[in-house]
Known about the structure:
With 112 residues, chain A is mainly beta.
Amino acid sequence: AQTVTQSQPEMSVQEAETVTLSCTYDTSESNYYLFWYKQPPSRQMILVIRQEAYKQQNATENRFSVNFQKAAKSFSLKISDSQLGDTAMYFCAYSGNTPLVFGKGTRLSVIA
Amino acid sequence: DSGVTQTPKHLITATGQRVTLRCSPRSGDLSVYWYQQSLDQGLQFLIQYYNGEERAKGNILERFSAQQFPDLHSELNLSSLELGDSALYFCASSIGAGDHSYEQYFGPGTRLTVT
């Protein structure tokens, strides 16, 4: 079975600084997709970024980018120019032949 | 606003009771997924329906069941409720069927409290 591990339960960053959230996964599938979801205090699940495993190029979405290391099965999220509105739980997720498998999440606090 | 609606927002009930959670997917989406978010287990996939048919099953208890209706809305039925069933239940929808690469749009969730 696929597993997703987020080793940082909590992190904090100063406003305008850069922070990186870690994620590793385990799978024997060759074709899969990786996601980062954000869950702010409102509890809404919001897709931040998506990466196809067959693409070598790292996905970017404005201030959010990933470092996808397929051989190492690593998928970290970098948030640049952190804003107060980035304060949230961040979940790394995997999907292949099964629907989303989530990590336990990292609680990110952005400090003014 | 994701376009996915869930009702009710909050539900408080007693152990042993039965409840029904409702979800309407985004316009055009044929797949509905149900997830459970609890402090103990984190976010877990329960079940997926595609165009009225069950497509994938996850860690769904036998006391739980779901269905998707011809108008594509879905209901999750939870019976013989236990304290441990207290959780946030999310519905998500997507265009895809067996291919889970499509983006899933999440509803606001239903907060279930079992007392």
